[in-house]
Amino acid sequence: MQINRNSTKNITKSHFSFFVFQYTTDLSELKEQYFSVLYSYILSRFQDVVTSEFTITFTVRHLFYIPYKVRVRCKQNKEKLQCRFRVESENFIAISVFVILCAALFSYTSFSFFMWFSAIFLVVFYLIHYIFFSSLCSRIYNQIRVRETVDDFLSQEQLAWFKNPNVCPACGSEITKYHSYCPSCGLFLSKKTFSPLSATEQSVNITYTYVEFSNETETKK
Hints:
CATH class of the domain at 5-92 and 121-144: Alpha Beta
Distance between the termini: 98 Å
Number of strands: 5
Order of helices and strands: EHEEEEHHHHH
């Protein structure tokens, strides 16, 4: 995919940020045209996407509906790619200051309460942002990495177990259709219920005959 350079704007230098995430990967583990793949993914999910040479900025509004500018820069050398995510912290600082000032107004009689509240709020607020943006940046970066399939790390013997209904797919032990768990490794297979008469492969036919006893038969006994 070719990036539309007509909509590209000059990206200003980023300010200090509390949230910076950096990833380094071998080029052999990345998809072809990785920057175009990254740009397409960001463009389809975020707003205010602006790009320049190996740099993309976009706006994230998923955390408390607060807009955060995120800048991702890709730097490539001969063997590796370094991808750096930087989240602008202006809104984080502004909200933190606002909450602390409000706490100061309502806790003017207790300085210790104000200090404890401010410290706890800043720690919790920071951790929420850090966990959210760490997960977000990791998810975005994984879009340009080559993902291994199940067939890549399973042996031919293990692949045969998956295709054979008479063996456990985890350890290869023999099982029947009446096993809910593997007798060797304990793997849950399926939830099956059977009547006591169907515990074997053989079918059992039972015939009931009703006999009415007369009074003479009971007297002889």
